[in-house]
Design a protein that fits this description.
alpha/beta, Spore Coat Polysaccharide Biosynthesis Protein SpsA, Chain A, nine-stranded mixed β-sheet, elongated
Length: about 280
Amino acid sequence: MNPIISIIIPTYNRSDQLKNAIKSVAIQKFMDWEIIVVDDGSLPPAQITNMDSRIQLYKTENRGRSAARNFGFSKASGKHVLFMDDDDELVPDFLETIRDIIIDDDGQYLLKFQLIHKMKDKMISENLYGIKSMESFKEQIFLKGLSLMQVLIPRIIGENFNFDESMESCEDQDYFLKLVNSEIKFKEFPKFSGVVNHSTEMKSKAYIIQNFKNRSVINRRYGLHYSLNLKFKKLSLDYKIFIKLMSAQKKLFSAFIIILISMKQSLYFLIKKTV
């Protein structure tokens, strides 16, 4: 019998972090899951101790995490799919708290949850709940991106989409923009799915250049619509601010005139009194 949820974890030369990621799933009270680990050519190859029958380990040549995710998805059999990085961790009992949601879900929506971001020893809870429309959801992804771990993807939807294997950064943003621009809807829940660990290491020059190139690709693919939309919103906001400023200036000018008249009257009475 197929599991309810497939969790796909690509990994490359981070065996210690991978152990913690797997453990965060293994300790969940909800147990109807499978983990698909795709070792993207690690040296030495990734090893999993105390292998659970629900954990599958595949070893591939090094082709990048986008290719590893696509390969992992091809092996998934769950009703829903959740992507994790090898240094991510699920919140304890996350799967248990959403069991009714995923069991009853008809597979027509992306299910979006909240995240906790960790940088060094600081934990920052995301506060992006309450997206009002699909358009604002698209704009959020375009401007800020979206973590893979905060979205459960019905397998019947994900089967029609792949990660761009030419991209080694911004690939998650590109993936979600493909989904939402295909008019796939989402449901949002105020529950935390997991902890994203942010590295404080300095990015290499090659990575920064590649990231800039990939961001340019995303702008070409999706940016015109959102840029125009955002510019329109900015113009509307600028107009409102202009009206407020004009109103404020009118009030200041009126006050200035009143002060001048008062000063003129005071001066007139002062001169008249002295004469």
